[in-house]
Each structure stands twice: as C-alpha cells, then as structure tokens.
Specification:
The protein has 14 helices and five strands. It is α/β, with parallel strands linked by helices.
C-alpha cells in the first residue's frame, strides 16, 4: 500500500461549526455533485466529488481512503482543519485549482484533448502533473501519448508537426512559434513528471531561438508567453548551451559536406565506370560533370552566405537547413536529374543522422 506524500494532502473529518471557514469558499460550478461523498479543497476552490470515483482511478486516493480516520486528539489545528463541510470530510490538496479541475473533468467525462496548442497544453500539463502525483497511470499514459504528437520521438512525426506550424503561420500571419507552447515549459514539465521522451524535441525547438530571444524578454521576437530561461534549472541551461553549440556546428558541417558529397560521387563513379552504368539503369547518371561541379561550388557559396554570414531564416535549425540544401537542385527543374536526386537522397540521410544525434547534443542519452 502506497503512503501519501508528506505535506501534499491533509484530511479534515471533525464536526463543523458556525465559524467553519470552508463555508466562505466558492464551490466549483460543474464539479459540485449533490450526492458527492468527499470535498476536495484546492486554492480556496471546493469540489464535491465521489470517493468511489477517485478510488477507482487513483491508487493514491484508494489507499488514502482505506486508512483509518484520525481521532480528534490527533489533529493538528495548525495544519489540518477539524471541520466537516455539509457533513463530509474535506481533503486539502496543495495543487492549483485549475489543475484539479482538469483532472476531475478527465476522470468523470474521460479525457478530451485538443490540438496541442497553448490552451490545450495548460489543460494537459495539469492532468499530467496530478495523474503522476496521484498515481493515475492510465490517464497519464493517454495524456503523454497526446503530448508526444507535438513533441515527438521520430523525425517523421517532427516533420508533421512542423508542417502544422507552417500552415498556422501562413493562415494567421502569426509567428509559427505561437502554434505550440513555449519549449521551456515543456522541458520543465518533462522534468517534473519524469517524461524524458519529451526532452529531445523540446530542447531542439528551444535551441532554434537565438540567445537574445531566450534570455531577453524585452526582445520583440522573444519566446512568446514564456517566463524565459530563468525558469530552467542550471543543469538544463547547460544542456541547452551545449546542444545549441553542437547544432550550429552541424550547420557548418552540412554545408561543407554538401560539396564533398558531389566530389565523392563523381570520383567514385566517373562517367563510363561500372558504378556509373549501374546508376544509368535507374536513369541517374550525370552527363555534365563540369557544369554540375560549378553548380555545387556556387551552391556551397550561396548556403555559406545565407546561413553562416547573413544568418537568414533557418540559420539555427540544422534539420531545416538539410532539407533546404536537398532542394537546391530540384529534380523537377534541374538539367541534371542525377545530381539533383543524389542531393535529395544525401539530405534525407543527413536529416536522419541529425535526428539521432539530438539526444547526444543536449546530453540526454
């Protein structure tokens, strides 16, 4: 049988009197059931609910309600009120009333999650905090699965998430970063509820912001709605700095390796070679080596100027940079489809490598 965490809840079960302070507290409009058997108190908000409902879903509450009720002499009036409310015991929860409300709605009506925007995150994060704290395993698993669609563990799911962000930006003209909650809040939640699978994508998203956006709340394009890096633990600030450095180094490596990729392909498979004839069977053979060599040299120069010198869009996002580099010689318009498709294949493989490296960058493995 589990033991309730010290200081997290207190239980009141003695007679109520005319000075019972609970009578002055507001009662939740939807979560006050006339046939309820227990009252929960959180931040001066009262919830009248059913012991059977709490016990059915939560091992914590089930064990707590099985414990013998203390006698009057064992109450400490400085910690636990001895009063009943409407003849019912009062359990004081040291949690946000909004979180308690979100949890109870999910328990009574079943979880109904939204689209992972900021409002939805506020509800889901509350459910996750309390389902973790009060050992409601099934609800926690469902909430984590939902949150993981926005903070995923696979590159394919990340790309789907990014497409939603792009559509949001296009349709609303608002910064795409507003589509999802600030990554700082996701990092902190993941640490609080021990959900390490959320951390790689959250840290990666956070690393795409410039340091001025993270640390200077006065910046016009600061991380919207977040309390900024001051809320990150020192160890997570270190993870962020190390990961961001690795991410920026990867962009330099990508641009350099794009040119090296062309050289490797044409040195290994010069025109007329066995490898070249093999590629011909797929319609992928370069017939204009000199022209393509010049093209790749110019593309490397262009990418260097755009991402490393001018610091244009995507300069902090190696997954985005790799995708863009792969499209620089589009197979649909390029005169050399062999080199265009080779570049696309190279970029796809590089993106897979980057995704696998992210936990290592941020010291999460």
């Amino acid at each position: 049988m589990s033991t309730p965490p010290t200081g997290n809840t207190t239980r009141a079960s003695n007679d109520h009197g005319p000075d019972n302070v609970f009578h002055s507290y507001p009662r939740h409009s939807d979560l006050w059931f006339s046939d309820g058997s227990v009252v929960l108190l959180a931040e001066r908000m009262l919830f009248r609910v059913h012991i059977s409902q709490l016990s059915r879903h939560s091992a914590f509450f089930r064990d707590m309600f099985l414990l013998p009720q203390p006698s009057r002499s064992t109450f400490s009036s400085s910690v636990i009120s001895e009063d009943l409310l409407d003849g019912l015991p009062v359990v004081q929860l040291h949690d946000a009333a909004e979180d308690v409300s979100s949890l109870l709605v999910a328990l009574y009506d079943g979880p109904s999650f939204g689209n992972n925007d900021r409002d939805d995150f506020r509800v889901v994060s509350g459910i996750l905090r309390l389902s973790t704290k009060y050992v409601i395993d099934l609800l926690r698993a469902k909430a984590l699965a939902h949150l993981s669609t926005a903070w995923p563990a696979s590159l394919k799911a990340w790309d789907a998430r990014e497409e939603i962000s792009r559509m949001y930006e296009s349709e609303t003209t608002m910064p795409r970063g507003l589509r999802y909650p600030p990554p700082i809040e996701v990092v902190n939640l993941a640490r609080e509820i021990n959900a390490p699978n959320l951390l790689p994508s959250a840290f990666y998203d956070l690393s795409r912001y410039h340091f001025s956006q993270i640390f200077d709340s006065g910046q016009e394009d600061a991380i919207h709605g977040s309390s900024l890096a001051a809320t990150l633990a020192p160890s997570d600030l270190q993870c962020l700095a190390l990961g961001k450095e690795a991410s920026l180094n990867m962009i330099i490596t990508l641009i350099q390796s794009m040119g090296a990729h062309y050289q490797r392909e044409h040195i290994a498979h010069p025109a007329g070679s066995v490898g070249s004839r093999h590629r011909r069977s797929y319609g992928l053979i370069c017939h204009s080596g000199a022209a393509c060599r010049q093209d790749f040299a110019e593309l490397v120069e262009l990418a260097t100027q755009h991402y490393l010198v001018d610091r244009e869009k995507g300069c902090t996002d190696p997954l985005y940079v790799a995708e863009e580099l792969g499209q620089l010689k589009s197979a649909e318009v390029s005169e050399c489809k062999a080199c265009a498709r080779s570049l696309e294949t190279w970029a796809s493989k590089e993106r897979e490598k980057i995704w696998k490296l992210i936990p290592q960058w941020f010291r999460l493995d």
